[in-house]
Structure formats: structure tokens, C-alpha cells
Amino acid sequence: MFEITYLLFFLVASLLITVCLGGYMAKVFNYQPTLLTPIFEPIEKLSLYITGIQSTGSQHWKQYAFDFLLFNLVCGFVTFLILSFQHLLPLNPLHLAGMEPWQAFNTICSFVTNTNWQSYSGEVALSNFSQIAGITFMMIVGAVSGLAVCVGFLRGLTNRHSGNSGLGHFYQDFLKSLLYVFLPLLLVGSLFFISQGVPQTLQQQVSVTALEGAPQNIAFGPVASLLTIKQLGTNGGGFFNANSAHPFENPNPLTNFIEILMELAIPMGLVYMFGVWLKNRMQGWVIWGAMMAVFLSFLWMGNAFEQAGNPILSHLPSISVGIDQQSSSLQSGGNMEGKEVRFGVLPSMLFTVATTGTSTGAVNNMHDSLTPIGGLVPLADMMLNIIFGGVGVGLMGFLLYGIIAVFLTGLMVGRTPEIFGKKIEKPEIILASIAILLHPLLILVPTAIATMNDFGLSSLNNLGPHGLSEILYAYTSAAANNGSAFAGLNANTPWYNISLGIVILLGRYISIIALLAIAGSLLSKTKMEPGPGTLPTNTLLFGGVWLGVILIVGALTFVPVLVLGPLADQLAMLNGTLF
Amino acid sequence: MFVAIRFTLLILVSMGLLYPLALTGLGQAFFPQQANGSLIHNATGQTIGSSLIGQAFTRPEYFHPRPAANGYDAANSGGSNLGPTSKKLIDRITVDTSGYQQKNGAKQPIPVDAVTASASNLDPHISVANALRQVPRVAHARNVSPKRIKALVLQLTEKPLFSEAPYLNVLTLNLALETKNSF
Predict the structure, then answer these.
(1) What angle do CA A537, A541, A546 make, to 5 degrees?
(2) Contact criterion met (CB < 8 Å) for B5 and A74
(3) Nearest Cα to B91, choosing from A578, A326, A301?
(4) Do A343 and B164 touch (CB under 8 A)?
């Protein structure tokens, strides 16, 4: 009964957010006035003035991409300095040392790309200044850049600027994303989280004497301002090492529910906005429905296996009565290792599916301790990386598969493939193939290298097939710009800091540049009216083909390694084999 | 190039500094209790912890929390990160299970949250099943009738919006035990 009510609330809230936020963004990025325009228009103009941007005319895709990359590079460099020299900067009451260069390199690669992989532990390694001016700042840059780039891409795809070969102006899109979309939600969201118990203070620690007399040092700081952008921007890097499992970062089941919705809000809204811009809302809903179908299947699978628990615990040889993993009115039951009592099984798994599908990477339970199939769900979710996807890049990835899908169906019926009224030709297919093939390459090659060498294996926390899953998860998370981890793996070694940093950079920028190039190329083609020979892409049938292509092209590559990792682990668990 | 630098500085100052500092001001003004870590005090006014952060309890007259990967160190959060087929995990659970049986009797099965480590290392809650299982031990150690302890457990059971199953805050429960007139 709880399951049904909970999911019903989730679906209704998702639909509301999709329509409201999507409709709002469709106006904002089309330069139409909204309720907030009187407040933010002067700020936008002032910001453009003081940064010396004179014209906000539409840019060619190359200029748009260049501005995006250069801005990200400068931000990364500034943050590198802040992290490395935090011992010389203010708000460091615990006198923490500066971050080591390789770890700082990994951290900036990770945060500028909206990945938020963390090889450090927040409350141990960072001063409050680094948490706000380094991490919070970088999270905002990564997320807002992602939204801006997606807006540019969608303009290209939907011909918003008719008679003009541009995608829009990068800095203007950035400012609009930040002011009109992020800022209001950040302020309201943060105040809500503070009211629920998320700390927001400049102190770094308080010492208390616990009830039994032992001392306890409680770490905290400006958590709420970081938490909100972490969720809303699908960033995912926690203030604390335990991320959203930490009671200060996720105090109760209600905040958990809101955090899940925040991860999905902008990616869902973008799908709707795309439909509005195409003047074809049905197209938006077909994409939304296909994404939600996969989302719910993953959730069902993960929840079933986690609720079933760990069979080894039911038959411990030395225990007379056994461990009760059944769900009842007195406990949530299931596999509770690495889970919090206040969340239980389904709210934990909903968080897991949302965080890995959207490239957020925050966690409210420890994925390393999931049952093998329960852990396969987040892995597969990141391998696809488009079940709503990260802010901006998720929808772009989904449309990429759409291009492949019309190409394949075009081949089947012997016609020139077209999508949204534009012909798909050789350059688009080459670019799309590069972007799609890159993902498995970035995951499988470094995983193979790490499993063959001591520098890779010595970081493992779990042995046997679960060890392979730990390494595989790390590279999948990096390539997908997700940032969650099978956190047993000690990733703070030169090999992992450097290799994961490089995978993160390639995973983000190559595919974004390829997609902007596709948008630029499509923009230059004349739009054709749909004729009798056109394959409509807004039907249930094409939605099915689209999903089929995603599963065959996107997932089949990974089946062998998933058999060796999670599936072998599952068989071992059923057999009672320990490693 | 200069545009990129100026733009970076603008975002750094506005979103990296102004935004978190303004929120700190607002949070401190409107929700000072929550913004400062939801700290709680005992009868004599001493700060004894945070109502959101779990504490270690080992004495028989207190309810015990879940096992923690790092001993309820509130400056070092995280889980065990052991997978279900890990020998380390099963060995730990076996030891914890026999300990739990010795303290709380071996007749009924053990609620799973009582022998598994949380994700945060700081889980402040236990399931109702786990609390009820500990009632006879606590009552015996305090020389009170188990009925009265059980009544207190049921009274402090929480079932907030969107929670899967009801649960109890161990610190709140133990603090209530210390206040005699609460039961």
C-alpha cells in the first residue's frame, strides 16, 4: 500500500513539475517576458555591462562552444587555486592543509563537468571557504553551463532563430539559466531545507559530551546552500562524505522526496520545453513517456531485489533464530546494510534510480552495499545516462539516439532519414556515432587496464566479482559524468585521480562538442514539411523503436562485463559463496 | 579571454560568496535552531548532541543504536561499503548477531537494522521492531516494568510523511528514559 501511494505522489508531482517548469523555461529561453522579468532583466543587463559583453547577437555553433569551453577552463583554474591554497584563505578554523595537486586536478575536472566524483571526504578535507567559493561555485558553473548548452542545441534543432545561423549567445543563455531558473529555486529550496534541519552556518565543528559521557565532534557548515545546487543542478557532490545519507544533508523522508524531485526537475522540464519549441507537444510526451517507462522498470527491479534482502543472512550457521528481513508494520526490512532507517527500501531505491539516471550522483544509501542486481540497476542507468539525464546533456543524449533510430529505420525502408523535418546525412551520422561509441570505450578500456594491474587492484574494498563491479562502477560513473561511487574503492591514488579525471573530461566535452556541431549542421539545412513518405517520430511506435535502439546500441555493449560482475556476484550470493 | 575572466569573477563573487553568505544570514535569522545543527540539551542545560545525529550507546539501561562503520564519529561519515558476498561483512554480522542475542534473548528473530551498518555512520534511528526487542533488557536494567518502557517506545514512535515504516530516534528515546516523569 505504501509503495502505491508513494509512487502515485511521485508521478503526480513529476507531471506537475514537467509542465510548469518546462512551460516556464520555454518562455524564458525564447526571450518572452515572464513574471520574474521585471526583477531579473536589470540584473541581466548590469551583468552583461560590467563583464564587457556588448552584443548578445546569435553565435555560430563554433563561437558558442568556444565561449563555453573557455569560461569553464577559467573557472576550473580559479577553483584549482582555491583548493590548493585553502590554508592561506579565510574560513578555515580547523587549519586544514591545501589539497594535493593530483587530487585538486581530479576535483576540478569532476566539478566543472557537473560530474562531482569526489576522491576526498568533504568534512575531513575542505574548509568552509573551499566548500562555498570552490565547490558551491563550481557546481553552479557546471550545472548552469549544461543548461545553457542544451538550450543552444535545442535552438539549433528547432530553428528558433529563423534566417540566422546561430544557436544564441552563450553568456546570455548562462545568465538567463542562472537568474530565471536556478536562482529562485535555489533560494526557496535552501530555506526549506534549513527549516527541516539542514545546517547553514560558518562554524565548522561543534564539540559535545554525548549522553553516555564520551565526547562527540559534530561537523557541519554551510550545508543547505550546497545541497540545493547539488540536487537541482544534478551535480551530486556531497558536503559530507556520506552525501545525502548524512542526516544533516537529508534529515527526513520529506526532504528525501523533495531531493529526488529536484534532481529530476530541470531534465524533465527540458523534455516538455523541447515539445513546445518544436510546436509538437506530442513529441515531448513520447520522449517523456519512454524515459519514464525505463525509469519505472529500473525502479521495480532494484526495489524487488533490495526488498528480498541478502539470503546469506537468513542462514548464518552459528545463529539459532536468524535475521528477519521481512517488511512489516514494525520495520521496512530488506537489505539494510548501507541504508538509513528513515528511508527504508523504496525511498532509497527511488533516490538511486533518479540519481544515476540524471547524472546527479548524490546517494542516500551506499551503492557498494546493494545486492548485486540492486547494484546493477544504477550501473545500467549510468551506462544509458539518458533516463532524464543530467541538466541539459540528458535530453541531448536522448536525441542523439533518436538520430541513430531514424537512420536505422530509414535504411530499413530505403529512404533518406530525417528528424524534425531535417535530413540526416553523413556528417550527422559520423558525429553521432563518435558521441555514442565514445561512452563504452571510456568505460571498458580503463576498467580493463585497472583490473590487469596492481595499481588498479590494490584500491579494492571487496574481492571476487564485486571487486570488478567496484572498478566498473567508477569508470561508468566518470564517463557518465555521474559522480556516485561504489565507495569502497579507494580512488585517491595517482592512477585513479588521473585516469578518472581524464575520462570525466573526455566524457563531457567530446560529446557536447559533437552535439553542438550536429545542431549547427542541422540549422543550416532547410526545414521540410512532412510528406506522405515521412516517418513520424511522435508516435508510440517510433517511441518503441527509439527505446529499442537505446537498449541495443547503448546497453548491449556492456552485457559481457555485467555478466562477469553483478550477475556472477548474484549467483555467488544465492550459492552462499563468500569472497 | 578577458570576458571569460570577468565573467568568472562575477559568478565567483555573486554565487560563490554572496549566495551562501546571504543564505547563512537568512537561515540564522529565521531558523536559528535548525541552521546551527539542531543541538539538544539535557535538564541542566548541557549540550548533549544533535537530535539528527546518532550516538553510540553500550550500557544496558539505554536503547542501543545500529552498528556503525566508524563508531558514530560525527566528523567522519560513511558506510562500510561492503558488498553482500563480502566475507568481512558476514563475519561482522555474525559477531554482532551473537552479541545482540546475548543481550536481548535468542527466542525471536533479529530485526535486520539491528545488525547492519547504516549508510551515514550516524543513523539516529532504529526500527520499532528493534526497539521493542530491546524493551525487556532496558526494563530489567532500570528495574521498571517492561509495560511502562514499551508504552514509552510506542509514544515516541514516529511515522512522518513519506516514511516507509515507523521508527524511533534513539537519542530522544534515551533522553526520555533519563527524565523520570516521562513514564
Answers:
(1) 65
(2) yes
(3) A578
(4) yes
Q: Between A and B, how many CB-CB pairs are < 8 A?
A: 399
- What are phi and psi for residue A419, nearest 5 degrees? -135, 135
Alpha-carbon distances of A304 from A3, A140, A309, A345, A374, rounded to whole Å: 11, 36, 9, 9, 8
Q: Is the CB of B12 inside 8 Å of chain A's CB atoms?
A: yes
pLDDT digits (tens, 9 = 90+) for A5-59: 999 999 999 999 999 999 999 999 999 999 999 999 999 999 999 999 988 888 8
pLDDT tens digits for range A295-341: 999 999 999 999 999 999 988 877 777 899 999 999 999 999 999 99
Interface pTM, i.e. ipTM = 0.96
In B121-150, the residues whose Cβ lies within 8 Å of chain A are: 121-130, 132
DSSP secondary structure string for all residues of A433-495: HHHHHHHHHHHHHHHHHHHHSHHHHTT-SS-THHHHHHHHHHHHHHHTT-----TTS---SHH
Stretch A508-521: mean pLDDT, rounded? 89
Return the domain boundaries, chain A.
2-25+53-312+334-574
* Distance between CA atoms of residues B134 and A178, nearest Å: 52
Q: Residue A50's Cα: distance from chain center in Å?
A: 33
Q: Which three three-digit cell numbers place residue A539?
A: 508516435
**Buried/exposed A143-160: b ≥16 CB within 10 Å, e otherwise:** bbbbbbbbbbbbbbbbbb
How big is chain B, counted in residues?
183
Select from A513, A508, A479 the least CA-distant residue to A76. A508
B103/B99 Cα distance (integer angstroms)? 6
User: In chain B, how many H helices and how many E strands?
Assistant: 7, 5
A265 lies within 8 A of chain B by CB: no
Chain A environment of B72 (Cβ under 8 Å)? 216
CA distances from A458 to A486, B81, B88 (A): 15, 16, 17
Closest chain B CA to residue A50: B6
Q: Would you tell me which residues 164-183 of chain B have a C-beta closer than 8 angstroms to some C-beta of chain A? A: 164-167, 171, 174-175, 178
H helices of A119-218, where?
A: 122-125, 128-129, 137-158, 170-176, 183-195
Give the model confidence (pLDDT) of B47-89 as tens digits.
999 999 999 999 999 999 999 999 999 999 999 999 999 999 9
Measured CA to CA, the distance from residue A472 to residue A324 in angstroms comes to 32
Task: Please give the Cα distance from B183 to B181 (Å, whole number).
Answer: 5
Nearest to B82 among A224, A336, A462 (CB): A462
Measured between beta carbons, the chain B residues lying within 8 angstroms of A346 are: 164
Q: How confident is the model at residue A161 (pLDDT cuts 50, 70, 90)?
A: low
| Chain A nearest CA to B55, separation (Å) | 7
Euclidean distance between CA atoms B104 and A7, whole angstroms? 37
Residue A53: Cβ within 10 Å count: 18
Which residues lie below 8 Å from residue A441, measured CB to CB, with a gap of 6+?
none
Mapped to the 3 state alphabet, what secondary structure does B153-171 carry? HHHHCECCCCCCCCEEEHH
SS3 A217: strand
Q: Can you read off the three cell numbers belonging to residue A576?
A: 552462499
- Does residue B178 register a pLDDT over 90? no
- The beta strands (E) that lie in A287-375 are given as 323-324
Give the three-state DSSP class for B39: strand
- Are the C-beta atoms of A126 and A89 separated by less than 8 Å? no
Dist CA A468 CA A456 (whole Å): 10
Alpha helices by DSSP H, listed for A196-280, are 223-232, 253-278
Cα-Cα end-to-end distance for chain A: 38
Grid coordinates standing for A447? 576498467
Measured CA to CA, the distance from residue A40 to residue A26 in angstroms comes to 17
